[in-house]
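thread: overnight batch results

M.L. [08:02]
morning all. the overnight job finished for the chain we discussed friday. pasting input first so we're all looking at the same thing
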Amino acid sequence: MPTKKVKHLWELPVSKGGKPPKFTPEQLHKKCVEYFNWVIENPLMESKLVSYQGESVVEEVPKMRAMTVHGLSLFVGISYQTWYTWRSSERYRDIVAWADSVMRQYKFDGAAAELLNSNIIARDLGLVDKQDFSSEDGSLSPKPTRIVIRGKRAAPPEVDSDNG
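M.L. [08:03]
and the structure it wrote out:
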């Protein structure tokens, strides 16, 4: 974790540019775990108006913060491009794949429990609900459906001659 406790990622020191920091795989793993813990320990806060017996108070309610590659990259002190490069690096690919899996599962769990916006998380995770509205000929106009009912025809209702 950074030397001082930070509440917002923009409070972290800015990289001076140049080459990304050198980490051993173990150090990178440790930084990832620190980020995951930071996300849990620093939830987003929502102000909610709470009323009870005619008295209203604004209270801060913690909300789940999503884990992201961009957030992790800022926390570790690298660019997100470096993170993507490390995905194919023999030195880091196992740690990066593990961290990506942790973040993916955390977001999925949060969306499934309705702690995160499921529409946003579904798009972020690449989950889609596809429906095919095209017809066999490729147009969007379905062919008319003909319904045939087979069997005995019912007799028409009898008309009461006294009432009609």
